[in-house]
Amino acid sequence: MTSRLRLFLVALLLLSMGAACGDDKPSADDLKAEAKEQTADAAEKAKQAAEDAADKGKEVAEDVGDGPDSGKPALDIVSPAQGTKVAGNTVDLKLTVRGITIVKADGNTSGESGHFHVFIDREPNAVGQAIPNEPGIVHSAENPIKLSGLGVGRHTLTVVLGDGAHHRMLGDVKSSVSVDVAGPSVDASAPTKVTSGQDVVLEMKVQGVTLVKADGDRSGATGHLHVFVDRDPTASGSPIPQDSSIIHTTETTVRIPGLAAGEHTFWVVVGDGAHVPLDPPVRDRVVVTVT
User: Fold this and answer.
1) Which of 43, 103, 176, 269 minimizes the number of CB atoms within 10 Å of its CB?
2) pLDDT for 149-170, tens place per residue?
3) From residue 236, how far is each of 35, 270, 275, 278 by CA, in Å?
4) pLDDT given for residue 40 in this prediction
5) Cα three-residue angle 242-197-140, rounded to 5 degrees
6) Is the distance from CB of 266 to CB of 190 less than 8 angstroms?
7) Who has greater pLDDT, 185 or 57?
8) Alpha-carbon distance 73 to 113, whole Å?
9) How many CA atoms lie within 13 A of 12 on its CB side?
10) Is it true that the peptide bond before 239 is cis, omega within 30 degrees of 0?
């Protein structure tokens, strides 16, 4: 084979290979079409994702609208739980409250602030009505609210809100719980108001403890009454001192004379034979205004 023929055959082979490779390579038009299709797909996916996010955001907004951070007033009893059995006769009522500022009664009726009212074994007043200061209703701005004087048995505790003038507000904001008080218990009562110069007469009802003079018995089966006049009761575990502002007695009727005009607070505490308050606490609180 001559050199010229060999060169001709090689050239022919190279041309055939180049043509074959050129058939597999996409054209510029093909590349543009493919890119356009991918762009359209990406745009459609982005649009769908945006719509899904908007729908989700709307659902979240609707869920949060009535939630704790929405500013809508709400009130719940955290503890005790429904049906809790209580030893002694006191209950610490722990609450969560949102959407309103809790303050002592200050006359403010704007609806921006208020305080708690606990109705014990009775239905709350209607919205707008004045909530009286009387047995069975506790007015408080404290949290937890310390309830005392509960008798042995089941009690239903209902908490509502009142404004600074003690008018019930926000009728849909209330919470209730029932507890079973095992005792012992003491229930003290007195007129809410007396005229200056009159004695304040306290009446006490005791359950689950036999009243005897202090005899050293620390079993909790016996004890006697201690009336704290305008002072806080002794801490649990600490002996109750002999003091002119503390009356030690086994009598269930106590007369207190000579009180000045104004508001007076009396704590009645059951202590054992060594003058130590029973534990869990057995006590009650009474407030009387001398006019």
Assistant:
1) 43
2) 999 999 999 999 999 999 999 9
3) 82, 11, 11, 8
4) 52
5) 65
6) yes
7) 185
8) 10
9) 6
10) no
